[in-house]
Write a structure and sequence with these properties.
binds (3S,4R)-3-hydroxy-2-oxopiperidin-4-yl beta-D-xylopyranoside; single chain; 9 strands; 38% helix; 11 helices; globular; 297 residues; alpha/beta; eight-stranded parallel β-barrel
Length: 297
């Protein structure tokens, strides 16, 4: 196959990218994105600050722009994200306790009702753990340790057809505390029947560090709990070809690794643009990392 999406589809997987609504007028950007990918994540437009800027007043204009752009081209869409300590609207940042708990539930219900039956997956909860595997202290955590399972139960009822994911970064290395903390939560949810379908590993690789050699073990270990896994926000410092090939190969080796999403199109589109971490350069040319990924799919 000659594109990332088509190559991934040969094994029943997808290859996605983050899309920013503000770039949809850039024809170099939309040409590459429309050609190469078959899954889209809104980079910021479906986050709580974007979708519920005032309490109870939802705004889906930018999210829908991305949704419509993608689905008109036959691409699927991952929802990102419903409950997170970051990118909360101001009104939510100042809430706590039972009023924040209710606001979280209302937010999940409001956003999921709008996209009901339309999305492939939702990142229901994002980044809820510390590096040592304990829970991140946040206003959401302050509402009680059960906030994550409440979010997932609310989400399942709001849209029973969409896959419900937990998404986080630095959970790629199997021997890392955070990975183990997330693993134990998924294990606990599965044993108690808390609804969860997938784990998203953001896969933001930094520095000169090589791919964790146990990355595939992490993917297969999560999968063995009975969830799908996906690489949801991939970018790699200087787009190391060996790391890109290795992470692609790790996903390909795990049957329940259902797809890979890179966190942007060109280096110039990246939130880490100074690190040139993506598969296309600022001019829209394929980089060596592109070929290493395509060959591994
Ligand atoms: C980033 C976006 O790329 C930026 O444009 C924004 O300013 C901050 O958020 N983990 C996530 C993503 O789950 O939502 C973040 O996206 C990157 C880290």
């Amino acid at each position: 196959a000659s594109t990332l999406g088509a190559a991934a589809a040969q094994s029943g997987r997808y290859f996605g990218t983050a899309i920013a609504a503000g770039r949809l007028g850039d024809s170099t950007y939309t040409t590459i994105a429309g050609r190469e990918f078959n899954m889209v994540t809104a980079e910021n437009e479906m986050k709580p600050d974007a979708t519920e800027p005032q309490r109870g007043q939802f705004n889906f204009s930018s999210g829908d722009q991305i949704y419509n752009w993608a689905t008109q081209r036959g691409m699927k869409v991952r929802g990102h994200t419903l409950a997170w300590h970051a990118q909360q609207p101001g009104w939510m940042q100042s809430l706590s306790g039972s009023s924040l708990r209710q606001a979280m539930i209302d937010h999940i219900n409001g956003v999921m009702a709008h996209y009901k039956g339309k999305l492939a997956a939702w990142d229901v909860v994002n980044e809820a753990f510390n590096e040592d595997g304990s829970r991140r202290q946040s206003n959401l955590q302050g509402t009680g340790n059960d906030w994550i399972e409440v979010a997932f139960r609310t989400a399942r009822t709001a849209d029973p057809s969409v896959k419900l994911c937990y998404n986080d970064y630095n959970i790629e290395n199997w021997s890392y505390g955070k990975t183990q903390g997330v693993y134990r939560m998924i294990q606990d949810f599965k044993s108690r029947g808390v609804p969860i379908d997938c784990v998203g590993l953001q896969t933001h690789f930094t520095g000169g560090s090589s791919l964790p050699s146990n990355f595939q073990t992490t993917l297969s270990s999560f999968a063995a709990l009975g969830v799908d896994v996906a690489l949801t926000e991939v970018d790699v410092t200087n787009a190391s070809t060996s790391q890109y090939a290795g992470l692609t190969q790790a996903c390909m080796n795990v049957p329940r690794c259902i797809g890979i999403t890179v966190w942007g199109v060109r280096d110039s589109d990246s939130w880490r643009s100074s690190e040139s971490p993506l598969l296309f350069d600022g001019g829209g040319n394929k980089k060596a990392a592109y070929t290493s990924v395509l060959n591994a799919l």
